[in-house]
Amino acid sequence: MQVRIGVQSVPKELVVDTAQSADEVQQALAEALADERGVFVLKDRRSGRIVIPADRVGYLEISEDEQRSVGFGTQYT
Known about the structure:
InterPro entries: DUF3107. Pfam families: DUF3107. This is DUF3107 domain-containing protein. The chain is an alpha+beta fold. It is 17% helix and 35% strand. The chain is built from 1 helix and 5 strands. The chain has one helix at residues 22-34; strands at residues 2-7, 14-17, 39-43, 49-53, 57-63. The strands form 2 sheets. It has a 3-stranded antiparallel sheet, with no helix packed on it. Strand 3 (39-43) and strand 4 (49-53) form a beta hairpin. The longest helix has 13 residues, at 22-34. The N and C termini lie far apart (33 Å). The mean pLDDT is 87.
């Protein structure tokens, strides 16, 4: 799944490919925001981590992986 993160005072958004589900990402942000000095952590598909102070997160855009078709996409009826 792809997560786009808008960070306050940063002109470019972060794009992260993660194996976490949308619910796990949303729960991680909620837990980080509940803590006074919470840190939002995402794990990317290459075993890296993205760490952002939770109070600096402007928005999250979560996109499910799309199944891509192979071939020319014609259907026979």
